[in-house]
Design a protein that fits this description.
heterodimer; A: 528 residues; mainly alpha; two-stranded antiparallel ribbon; 20 helices; 2 strands; 2% strand; globular; B: 121 residues; two-stranded antiparallel sheet; 56% helix
């Protein structure tokens, strides 16, 4: 048996395996739980590591070769009789691979962190089942090339996420946050389903590439576009549809919050895929009804407006918030604003060097935000694990007891605030300098809000970690090793990405950007 | 075996279109600056620490509380800033009222704006 052939086989089937492994793993977890708690925890980690292995294998192939990989279920070709695209398929290009890497890193950290963080709780067979289901749904959203399949995976992710957000069923606020999340997710998903129905009724296809090749941007297409972007913007937590996000992030266990960051970014990925690929041909070539203004400029201006409001409201609310985890939730909203600011600026300056740099910065910031916010959620979880407290008014002096956690918090603080030399600075610098070319006011607001974000996290550092010893935390000790390993795992990425941004940009950001801009290569993956 | 190309790529400068950023250079400058400060600090007098009455905390004439009670909590840290922007925060608090019906209301408003813009333009 030739190992090289086996690797090829694995690579060919990896898109399906990335979803199938956590999905099957989830349903076997309750049975494994009967053997013992440690076996169950090890099983969940094994499943996530195995899934991540396939993610990295697939991503390495796609990012190195710049190829598009298609995996058709139930047949060898996507089209029947060279025209009818009925088969479900996964289509993976540089952008899918990039988002899948983020999801894999967050899932690994979340599942390792869970080992100690959740050990005091009951119902962990259900917890691990739901976490693996959420991971399967998230990868499905990222990899699928079929619109209806995309909706199904949104629903799988939403249901699993809702149950996990409300995992602390003894706390009313957690159940309340879970309820809000499922209402918001269901409404958003139903609007997405309505949009898919509109597109199917016109083009007789659900395949993203086939739709992208045929879409005419009719009146009905415009309605479908509004519904799709509205629904996905709500999933991504863009203001003013963000209110569920601090509730959900704040009340979920921290090990879940970090994976929820991945599902939110999967929603953002969906919005990018719809805008740049499914509607790419129409939006990048059409002009407005009024004359010669390109449509992409108008869409860019709308996105920039939403981005500025998102950044301002996210950061201002973070500055005022006194609950540690909700504060990170608001900061995450602000960070999403930076990503879409870059995307909007890229559309406004499409075809120019700084438009190109803006998109590079925006895509780079997606992975940086996931790592930075993810690390801060893990730190908040560590603080809660030791003190059973998340209110910044009641915490204090924890640096005396939790030295490693404090170091990880400082790394997260500097990274998320865009302080050199960490990763947030590199991506934000690209965003500041490119948006300055579009309009200096945009860059000024972005820089000002970064300073306010730094102030917000300095507040956390002062009130939770600095100050005199608090008598009720006298017995506080550093968190167990699995939690430190998870935090250290994310912190290593943050430091590496900060010190060597060019390596990251050249190896994973540029292929993702090319995939987003060259929608024809995505269409070419299905239609010869 | 680490190739020279890989080592060179570690030292590459990020070009932003209108500027450059090299973290390694920044760290070298930072370390040198730190060493200079550390050396200058070494010239200071060892017995320069303030002691006695001058070392006591002055709180506008109020008595100093025990240390644990002196810790400023998260809500009070930027009181001046948030108070100055209270008119903004009143609006934001109304927006974040925790009512899921209002969350959906905002979604409907945004959809309405999208439809108007996409229809008109």
């Amino acid at each position: 048996m030739n190992i090289a052939i086996d690797m090829d086989w694995l690579l060919t089937h990896s898109p399906a395996l990335i979803v199938a492994i956590p999905l099957l793993g989830a349903f076997i977890t309750p049975l494994i739980s009967k053997i013992g708690d440690s076996v169950r925890n090890a099983w969940a980690i094994f499943i996530v590591l195995l899934t991540s292995f396939f993610v990295f294998l697939l991503a390495n192939d796609i990012l190195t070769n710049g190829s598009v990989r298609t995996y058709v279920f139930g047949g060898n070709t996507a089209l029947i009789n060279n025209s009818f695209a009925v088969r479900i398929l996964f289509e993976v290009d540089g952008m899918n691979a990039f988002i899948a890497i983020i999801a894999a890193v967050l899932a690994i950290a979340g599942i390792i962190y869970s080992w100690s963080f959740m050990k005091e709780h009951t119902g962990l067979d259900k917890y691990y089942t739901l976490v693996l289901l959420m991971i399967a749904g998230m990868f499905g959203m990222i990899l699928t090339g079929d619109m209806f399949n995309f909706f199904v995976f949104i629903e799988i992710t939403s249901i699993a996420s809702c149950a996990l957000i409300a995992f602390y069923t003894n706390k009313g606020k957690a159940v309340d946050a879970g309820f809000k999340y499922i209402v918001i997710s269901s409404v958003g998903a139903l609007f997405i389903l309505l949009a898919i129905g509109i597109l199917y009724s016109q083009y007789n296809a659900l395949n993203m590439a086939v739709l992208a090749g045929n879409i005419q941007y009719t009146f009905l297409d415009k309605i479908a576009f509004g519904l799709l972007i509205g629904g996905l913007a709500m999933k991504a937590g863009i203001v003013p549809m963000h209110m569920w996000l601090p509730d959900a992030y704040g009340r979920a266990p921290s090990s879940v919050s970090i994976i929820l960051v991945g599902t939110t970014l999967a929603g953002l990925y969906g919005a990018l895929r719809m805008t740049f690929t499914v509607y790419g041909n129409s939006l990048l070539t059409a002009t407005t009804n009024k004359g010669d203004i390109p449509l992409y400029s108008i869409i860019g201006a709308i996105i920039v407006s939403l981005a500025i409001v998102t950044i301002l409201i996210g950061v201002l609310m973070a500055l005022k918030e006194s609950d540690f985890k909700r504060m990170i939730g608001f900061a995450a909203v602000g960070e999403i604003g930076y990503m879409i600011l870059a995307v909007g600026a890229a559309l406004l300056a499409l075809g120019t060097t700084y438009g190109d740099k803006a998109l590079t910065g925006g895509i780079f910031h997606i992975i940086n935000d996931a790592l930075d916010v993810g690390l801060l959620f893990l730190v908040a979880g560590a603080v809660y694990y030791v003190t059973k407290e998340t209110s910044l008014n009641k915490l204090g002096g924890l640096a005396r007891h939790m030295k490693y956690t404090t170091v990880f918090f400082v790394i997260g603080l500097f990274a998320v605030s865009g302080m050199p030399p960490l990763n947030g600075f590199a991506s934000k610098l690209l965003i500041y300098q490119s948006t300055y070319q579009v309009n200096p006011i945009l860059a000024i607001v972005a820089i000002l809000c970064s300073i306010l974000l730094l102030a917000a996290f300095v507040k956390v550092f002062h009130s939770a970690f600095l100050g005199p010893k608090i008598s009720k935390f006298e017995g506080a000790r550093e968190v167990p090793k699995s939690m430190l390993i998870a935090m250290g795992f994310i912190a290593c990425f943050i430091i590496f990405f900060g010190l060597f941004p060019n390596i990251v940009i050249n190896s994973i950001i540029e292929p993702a950007k090319d995939a987003i801009l060259n929608y024809t290569s995505y269409i070419g993956g299905i239609i010869p | 075996m680490i190739s020279p190309e890989f080592l060179y790529s570690l030292l590459e400068t990020l070009r932003t279109g209108s500027g450059v950023w090299n973290p390694i250079s920044w760290i070298i400058v930072f370390v040198v600056a730190f060493l200079v400060v550390y050396i200058v600090r070494g010239f200071g007098k060892e017995d320069s620490q303030v002691k006695g009455e001058k070392a006591k905390v002055f709180l506008s004439g109020n008595p100093e509380l025990e240390k644990e009670k002196m810790h400023v909590g998260g809500s009070n840290l930027y009181w001046g800033f948030t108070d100055m922007l209270s008119w903004v925060y009143r609006g934001l608090d109304k927006m974040h009222n925790g009512n899921v019906s209002d969350y959906i209301f905002w979604f409907v408003i945004v959809l309405g704006i999208f439809f108007i813009l996409l229809g008109v333009l």
